[in-house]
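Possible regression after last week's pipeline update?

I re-ran a chain I had predicted before the update to compare outputs. Posting the input and the new output here so someone can diff against the archived version. Not blocking, just want to make sure nothing changed silently.
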Amino acid sequence: EELAGLLGQLSCEVRFESSRMTIRSWGFKPQGDMLYVKSERSSQFASSLLLNAWNLERPVFVVLRGMSTPAYFSMTRNFVEYLGMKIEGLGPELQLLKWQVVTKSGMIIEPDLSSAFSLAACAVVDGSATILNFPMKSLQPDAVFVEHLQAMGASVRRTDDKITFEKTEKLKPLNANLKNQPDLFPVLAALCALADGTSVLNGAEQLQFKESNRLEKVQELLTLCGIVTRPVPGGLEIDGQPDLTRRVPKKYGVPFSVDQDHRMAMAAAVLMKAGYPLQVDDREVVNKSFPG
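New output (post-update):
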């Protein structure tokens, strides 16, 4: 819906059929003085516009309607401005100037910290992981996962530009608002399921519009594992069970569909690392974050 609305304002013809979308374009040709970008469900539509706003024939004024995760959009704006794009205005109204070109030949990209979190979480449950080139400061809102793990009592060691996570015998419950870090929710919920006490993760209503409805899928996953959960606005209240696997017969596999969602596969992996006998379909979906 949002994509069709945005492309329609740019004079593109968009047609949805049973399993495909067809776009016919004559270049970006805004129909009016303003582009209205709906961003209540996801900031990605506004980000996609910025990433493609090079070499425009005339200036484009943009009005952002709502912003579910402004920190992600700020990352995109910082990226294109580093590459040479000039954007006028702050907040919900911006002007994209005409005839802009990329002026930088390269840049160093930080590691994707939301994906790095899944490796750190698995290590905290059983193992060890060291992530190299870990940024000391980052615009990525998911960098806060280190603070979340420390609050849960996880073993975290940081030296220079690398950080190490190790198996932690006892995890503390966590209260966290994930409005700006919704991608952390599935894996963090799996860790909270193994904590000793009740955790509350909230504030991320946009989770229902991700690759799957992550609010429902995480609750389904934890329920399969015998974890008691209660819905809260934009999240879950989770009664952790640190001795979960002692109550589960290991010889029987419990089927779980990740619903084509890589974050759900990662959340299931954390519980499997803890010894829960999940049978996960479509494991290859993690190729979205970890090709190969």
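Follow-up from reviewer: compared with the archived run. The first helix runs from residue 2 to 9. Marking as no regression found.
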